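Worked Example 4.2. Consider the chain below.
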Amino acid sequence: MDESAGDPLQLHRAEPAPPVLLEQLHWLGVLYWTLDADKDENDPELEKIRKERNYSWMDVITICKDKLPNYEEKMKMFYEEHLYLDDEIRYILDGSGYFDVRDKEDRWIRIFMEKGDMITLPARIYHRFTLDEKNYVKAMQLLVGDPVWAAYSCPAAHFEARGQY
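Applying the procedure from the previous section yields the following structure tokens:
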């Protein structure tokens, strides 16, 4: 990903654009699956993942100007670099967007997410989210246990979880 501060909805591909392999993401603790989003929460593969990883809590969020209250404010908040003390799990049911994560050398990696993609960002990884030019995504949010929506902005090196990363 290039490091320009331009419109976050753009691709921001570095030139040359070396591909990021799933193995590289896995090395960072990022997990990825492709599921059948048309089956929604009735997908046996999704149920298997939820059971194996103890994802007991679930809701659905639609991010677009017409559906999300305080849209502009929320988009700025989502795009501010932050981390959580718990894993962040998103399953794209419709639409598309980008998760940006920091690698071990503190460079951004942009992950394009579209319908059927499911990702787990590990606790302690710096990340941010933005829509793409379509300005729409519907995503399932999954968690282990009850939600704790406490995002910590950079720098957050004082957290034990970040030190483990």
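Residues 64 and 136 are 5 Å apart (CA to CA). The radius of gyration is 15 Å. Compare this with Example 4.1 before moving on.
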